[in-house]
Amino acid sequence: MGSKDKQTLNPMHEFAAGTVAGMSSLFVGHPLDTIKVRLQSSQARGKYSGTLNAFKTILKEERVQGLYKGVTSPLAGTAFLNGIVFASYGFFIRFQQRNDQSPDKDPSLTQIGLAGAGSGMIASIVTTPTELVKIRQQMMLSPTGLPSAYQVALSIFRTEGFRGFFRGFTSTCLRDLGFGWYFATYEGTCRLFRWWRTRRKEKDYLSESGRSSHPYGVLMDSSDPATLLPPNQHHVNHASLIEEMESFESVLSWPELMVAGGLAGIMAWLSTFPLDPIKSRIQETRWVSPSSTPNFKSSEHPYNSTLVAIRSLYRELGWKAMWAGLTPTLIRAVPTNMVTFLVFEMIVGAAGGKSR
């Protein structure tokens, strides 16, 4: 959606667009998430030799629905998750810029990274219980008789209490610090593409006009007078993820946005991925007394805390176990980002503007 075509949208439209886009990408990427969880699980240990083998085995034994086990819980939490991320990201950006003289100044990548990390930690309040229910369903290997997300949640409450829903909260919170790398990488890549486009257009302008310099120093978009201004004078509300995203959509191509989103997803996962297998191990098991776990040689439950889980997993399988499930996770970054941008742009364009 170009900047000159953009109309002021109802915030609810923007929020709805983000929610539907998130749900769509979740639905597209969930099969790879199921494969990731199975590769990380202690219950399915040795069952799958790799990503492709896991995909074929699940499809053969549990059919297509096996790949979508546990999808209901994160889908139901998408709107809450978006609301928390949008609000907390804006709060952290405003807090860091509270003493800045220029309200239109672009936040630094460090500020963006810190705001993203903070929003990820706060969002773990939602992601912990939704992913707990999801993982419990994903680890049910039977092709039939799968209980609903509600039934699984009810079972957790009855056997582990309300506290049970936040099993794995610490590891989830630490893992979601990767939001900082996501936002910083996305912003940095988009700025790099924008700078490259600006320099290229400025050179073309100077070459065609025979001038030694452009009157504004840069040429953002010759088709829109507003973009003749330097980048920091577009009056973008940098505390709004929606406006920040749309500011890049108005000047960058879809391939550039796809590259930025893909790199952001890869960097986010690589930065904190070892905590994800730990989280999966903790969340797949419910808290029980040592006497009822004869398979565990020690009296100490191996997954009663993040630190204990790290030590236990390392002793059992080595550091390689900390990267289990990385391949399907990185593969998933490409289609999920494509769907996110496509659906978001379609909805925003239909609600208040013209999609590209």
From TrEMBL:
Q: Which UniProt keywords apply?
A: Membrane, Mitochondrion, Repeat, Transmembrane, Transmembrane helix, Transport
The molecular function terms in GO held by this entry are: transmembrane transporter activity
Residue ranges of Solcar repeats: 9-95, 107-192, 252-350
Localized where? Mitochondrion membrane
Q: Which InterPro entries does the entry link to?
A: MCP_dom_sf, MCP_transmembrane, Mitochondrial_Carrier
Q: Which SUPFAM superfamilies does the entry link to?
A: Mitochondrial carrier
Question: Which superkingdom, per the lineage?
Answer: Eukaryota
Q: Which Pfam families match?
A: Mito_carr
In the UniProt record, the signal sequence range is none
Cellular component, GO annotation: mitochondrial membrane
Keyword Mitochondrion belongs to the record: yes
Membrane topology for this entry?
Multi-pass membrane protein
Give the record's family classification: Belongs to the mitochondrial carrier (TC 2.A.29) family.
The name of this protein is: Mitochondrial carrier
Q: Which organism is it from?
A: Tulasnella calospora MUT 4182
